[in-house]
Every structure is written in C-alpha cells, then in structure tokens.
Design a protein that fits this description.
Number of strands: 13
Strand content: 15-25%
Strand order of the largest sheet: 3-2-1-4-5-6-7
Low-confidence stretches: none
Oligomer: single chain
Radius of gyration: 21 Å
Order of helices and strands: EHEEHEHEHEHEHEHEHEHEHEHEHHH
Largest sheet: 7 strands, parallel
Structural class: alpha/beta
Shape: globular
Number of helices: 14
Mean pLDDT: 95
Helix content: 40-55%
Length: 368
C-alpha cells in the first residue's frame, strides 16, 4: 500500500462504548493522520463519534434491531459500498461486522483485501455461540488476513473455528498519552482516600461477585478496614451485586458508581486497581491503569491480561474465581506496589503510534 494514496475501510457495528469500538476509532484516526483515505462503516449509535478525526468519512449502515434483518440489509449496504468505493483494504471487527462484511465481499466478487479482526475469546458454551462459530469459521476461511488481539484470542480461533491460516497478533492501541492530564480532572462522584478501584460492565463474566467477597475477606484484618472498594460501570448485575453488598454489611464500604465518562482520576488516585474477570477480550482498562502508574492485581483469565501484564511482570496475577487468593494478592500489592514509571512505560507499548504502525504494515502485506 502506498501511504498517501491507498484507501482503508473499517467496519464496526456501532460506536457504543466498547473496547473494539474504541480501537477502531483510534485506528481510523491514525490512518487518516498518515494521509490515507479512511472510511468508517458503522450505525448511528455511539458515544465515540466526537472522537473521530474530521478526515475520517463515516458511511452509515442502518442497523435494524432484528439480527437476521440486519444481516440481510447489512450485506446489501456493505456490498454497495464495496462496489462503489472499491477500498484497497476492508477491515471488520466483532461478529456482526465479520459475517456481514465477508459475505458482502463474496457476493460482489470484490478485489478488496478483507481483514477480519477477532476482538474476544471464541466460546461455544451456548447454542447461539455454536451457531455463530459455524458461520465465523467460513468467514475466516475466506479472509485475506486475520488479526487477533492476544495470543489467547488467536488460540481460540484455531481451536473453535478451525482456522489454519496464519493469525497476526496485534494488541489494542489504547494507551492515551493524555491520561495523566485527564487524571487531574475532578472526580464525577467524590470518594474518600484509601480506595481500591475496579472498572467494567456489571456482567457475570467480570465476576465482581468474587471481588466483593475478596474485599470482605481482605477487610477482616484491622489494618485494612480503612480501605473502600469503588466499582465503575453499569450493567445487568447491579441488583445482584447491591444485594450481595448489603448481605455482607458493606454498604458504606463498597460503592457502585455507575458509568463514569473519565475514569482516569479514579485510576490515578486509587491505591490499587483490580480486574476480577472470568475472561476478557483484551482488557483495555489494564492499559488505562498502567498509563497512570497504578499497581494492578488481575486474574490470569483467558484473553489479554497475561499478555498486557507479561505474565505477572507488571502486575500480580491470581487464578480465576479464587476469592481468598485475590484477597491475599490485594494485601500483598498494597504493601509492595510497583514503580509508577515502570508501569507507565509498559502502557506505552500499547500506544496508537506503536500499534498503528504495526497495523499499517500488516495491511500493506495483505493488500499486496
């Protein structure tokens, strides 16, 4: 690909506040800044539109609520885009975009190189997951390039989707060079000093239930009773978690603050960041915590945590769903935090400049 002439199209279903969406906005901006013609195909849903470079041209794909209607209608819309604009490279992420994009490429006999990016661990535990895996397997078989955001994600593609082709592992470009300045802003909802922070959607797989249990165990030691637990995020588990907090008598010590637009003041001022997930797509929030120099305790779950933390070099790693070991890990790291500069330098490995150039290099290879 010629840096100043060739065109790149990116397809993500929405620009709502997820990790894959943030990655594609960051990449679209990076490609545009490096003089590529860039289209972003997406619906009108999302909070990230204001973050887009003005040089990125948004091509709206209408997104009906019914998936099968969206699938058919999406194929027609994307096929028309490919026929009309003929980008050199077309990169898709998330299941909906991968299925629609790969089918649209096939029915138009387009010469555009299609790259499919897997943003999360592939699982087959439910009937609907097995349905999608069957169709994902076909899509990946016909891809010109395949990207996974961690070695675990790549392994899951090989195991569950039977991918035989080479998979390029490229991390999420999520380091924000302005993180330390953003951390100086006032907290949206004030909290007291001496707190541990966690961030994520209130969903089962984030396993905040184990974290709250671990925090209860941690507080049994008198010297730990000064600490509070602050959880940023919203989701379907709020009612269950609120009841758990009440049952443990922790109403004054554990705070569910909901969605917070700027988490950096909390990450920076916390004594410790904890990730308690059963599995992760990548774990962008780990990079965000590293970027302000906050020490980390994380489960060694499938996904990006082991990759980001270099298997424990940049944070304490605990087996999944072991509340007692998680409590011990919290105590240990509070007593022996890592150097802030070491953590911040690790976060820079996931900057848009570093990772964006790796993406461009791979796209050039696929296009040629």
């Amino acid at each position: 690909m010629k840096d100043n002439k060739e065109s790149i199209a990116l397809f993500v279903p929405t620009l709502l506040g997820g990790g894959a969406e943030k990655v594609f906005v960051n990449l679209a901006n990076y490609f545009a800044e490096h003089k590529h013609k860039v289209w972003l195909l997406t619906s009108k849903q999302g909070i990230y539109f204001n973050s887009l470079n003005k040089e990125v041209e948004v091509y709206y794909i209408n997104k009906p609520a019914n998936f099968f209607v969206y699938y058919i209608y999406g194929i027609i819309q994307v096929a028309y885009f490919l026929w009309r604009h003929k980008p050199k490279v077309f990169m898709c992420t998330l299941t909906e975009a991968i299925l629609i994009g790969s089918t649209a490429k096939k029915v138009t006999f387009s010469k555009t190189a299609i790259i499919l990016r897997q943003a999360f661990i592939v699982t087959t535990s439910t009937k609907i997951e097995r349905f999608f895996v069957k169709h994902l397997s076909r899509a990946y078989k016909n891809a010109d390039g395949i990207i996974a955001n961690s070695p675990d994600t790549a392994d899951s593609l090989k195991e569950k989707c039977g991918v035989k082709k080479e998979i390029k592992v490229l991390p999420n470009p999520v380091y924000n060079a302005d993180a330390l300045n953003l951390a100086k802003e006032k907290m949206e909802k004030e909290v007291n000093d001496n707190f541990i922070v966690a961030v994520g959607n209130l969903k089962k797989e984030k396993n905040f239930e184990c974290l709250i249990n671990a925090f209860s165990i941690f507080r049994q030691k008198e010297e730990n009773q000064k600490y509070q637990l602050v959880i940023l995020g919203e989701g379907p588990e709020r009612i269950n978690l609120t009841k758990q907090i009440s049952d443990l008598g922790l109403e004054q010590k554990v705070h569910l603050l909901g969605f917070i637009k700027n988490p950096y003041p909390y990450l920076k001022n916390a004594n410790l960041f904890v990730l308690s997930s059963d599995y992760e797509g990548f774990g962008n929030v780990l990079v965000e915590a590293l970027s302000v120099g906050t020490s980390i305790v994380s489960t060694s779950c499938q996904g990006g945590p082991g990759y980001i933390l270099d298997n424990g070099k940049y944070g304490k790693m605990i087996p999944v769903n072991d509340c007692e070991l998680l409590a011990d890990g919290i105590s240990e790291v509070l007593k022996n935090p890592l150097e802030e500069d070491v953590l911040i330098n690790r976060a820079k490995d996931f900057s848009v400049d570093v990772v964006g150039e790796k993406y461009l290099s791979y796209l050039r290879t696929c296009a040629n």
